[in-house]
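Sequence in, structure out. Go.
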Amino acid sequence: MPIVVVTGAATPLGRRVLARFAATTGTRVVAVDEISADLKRTTEGADALVHLGDADDAREVFEAAGAAAVEQVVVASTASVYGGWPDNSVPLTEEAPIRPNPGFDYATHHAEAERLAAEHREAHPGVRVAVLRFAPVLVPGEETWESRTLASPPALRADDAVPPAQFLHVEDAASAVEHAVTAALDGTFNVAPDGFVAGETARALAGGGISIPVPDRLGRSLARLAWRLGLGSVTPTAEPYRTQPWVVANDRFRATGWRPAYSNEEALVATRKGSWWRELSPKRRQEVALAVSGAGLVAVGAALVVLVRGARRRRATR
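Output:
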């Protein structure tokens, strides 16, 4: 009977992966919630080790896999390792360079985990190591950093900050993990729905409210100011992921036999909660948008005053 050890078993993705393997006859699953010194002992005799936990634990995971001579390792990564850059191809393939935006720990830590995965493959010839670069994963009924940021339009945004977007339903992410194990995959794979959606379409489906375009430099300054004041939901280091393209192609993974069950639109709509904005009629939305746009201009002016005064104070103290 094949034995599969799954770390990060208590996460939304981990719970669904466990359920899928539990429904598969002839497979024994060992759930690991937190990484500890016992992982090496837990992994002994396992046929596969699936790491769905914190990227910072990757070194301990690969050490355990090596010590137990596990023949297959599957690591959950993220498409954010490509970075949000204006010169990114649309979509990105696995051949694109890894260049996460500086300071965004979520992406940089996963990039380091991928480096360790490559080292493990080189140090253990014959071992299969599958790295799955997930598009932003959305979970119905649960809040994630993706749903708080990428799936929610900012109140103020740069004029051209409407990049295409992708959203992966957590059930599709779970099926991808199961497929990587059962198909004994080796290599790096983008995992995403077919295609992507236009930024404006994603904003409309999100139904989170009104997004007012402002000049690019002002938009970045206001985002930093909002974060410092505790009013923003996105750190300045993560802002490029909302303003620049980083959608991926799933052709390589589809070629192995995997198919997504949900489209980008279905994944996004399935995770959105009802809101007063979505209940309004189109005419009423337009009226409210016009009113708030006027108020937004006033807010922009006030923010500019704050920024200018702050700059003057800094110059005066030098």
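Check: The mean pLDDT is 82. Strands lie at 3-7, 28-32, 48-51, 72-78, 128-134, 137-138, 156-158, 168-169, 187-191, 212-214.
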